[in-house]
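Before a colleague's protein record goes any further, I have to sign it off. Would you go through it and say whether the fold makes sense for this chain? Take the sequence as given and treat only the tokens as open to question. The record follows directly below this note.
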Amino acid sequence: MTSTRSLRFRMIALFCVVVGALLAGTYVLIYSLFASEVSSQLDRRLMHTADPIIADLTANPDEGDIFTLDLPTQYLELLTPNGKVLQTSRSLQGHPLYLGAEPIGSSQITYRTISDPSKGRLRLVLIPFQMNSDHVVLAFGESTLETDRAISNFRRTLLILGVVSLLFTGGISAWYVRRSLKPVVALTEHAARMTERLIRAPQRELQAAMPVHNEEDELGRLAITFNTLFVKVSAALGQLHQFVSDASHELRTPLAVLQGETELLLLERRSPDDYESTLRVIDSELKKLGRIVEALFTLSMADAGQLRLAKVPIHLNEVLEEACAIATPLARAKQIHINCDPLETPYLGDEVFLRQLFVIFLENAVKYSPVGTNIDVRLSNGGRYYEIVFQDQGVGIAEEHIPHIFERFYRASSVAEARSGGLGLAIARRLVESWGGVITLESEPGKGTRVTLTLQTAS
């Protein structure tokens, strides 16, 4: 199930859990080392104190004066290896130590912790030695009260320190996480405002960019990426808005013609010639609609990167001659002569799209050329590239229109663009770009237009 907690809460909780676990582990280790060291010190002190007692008993086995000393916090017993008590110190007051059922042993020094009903917990060292050729065991012990108190106080101190450390860690993590997430919150709020601005005015590009505090860290790079993304989205939405508007305008005219002709045809009975004439108009408009839809489909495929161009061996000159033959009937109607005599040129490319590309430029040249003029088509081999030139003697294009001439539905004059429905030059540019080529357009009003296509030889 997805957590409903905020990112800030989860980061603080995770930070506190991790640091708390590390602190707990560290404190447990410190406590274990401290308790072990305190116990080891007690054992060393017992052994250090017992050594002179054993030396005295070994030197003077019959005196036993050591057991008559008043040692209120220390306890002595002399036992046989089987546990029989021989002598006890005055501090035991006649009550021997209970060492349990475990054998004492007579070969090595051992340590035990026992609980005496009257004396509490005691730490004992059992030291076997020989006295008067007899094997005996000295049991020497001290109360663990001070040691236990020291360990308990240290444990309590560690617990308090752990709680304080965890609270301090929580406060520091809350402050740091809040400070770290502050740029993210600012980016989120700014992104929301930019998104709202995009929704309200998609045709405008965004002017206010996200603040970038440090370009080197992750948040700075995120802000830069957001700025780039929103600028591109804004531009794309503006283009889409313009494209939809222009496409609607282009489609409205043929649809209006179709609707008007159909209504007029159905209004009353007419002669066969009238029906034929109206159907020809409808057929012409339907073909125009088909060309617009086909062009839009081609552009949408190119925009999505799904335009599949074949790379098969062809002769570029043959494709160019076929394109000239397609445009010849339109040119002949205006008494325009197309001069096309290219050299044989092998090439790797898509014959269908190349023919469509050449036809676009030829038909535009015919449409914008005066009656009785010429259109020159040349194909040259530059070694590493092929160059196809279309030169007409048409009306030309003003300089301010040239940068926009390949935009979708853009018109440099009031004359309708041939066959492409305002999309022909845009399609031509995308096709040439797909082959890694370049289009160069030079024009002068009243003198004509020169279009040069540069295609790489190694496609």
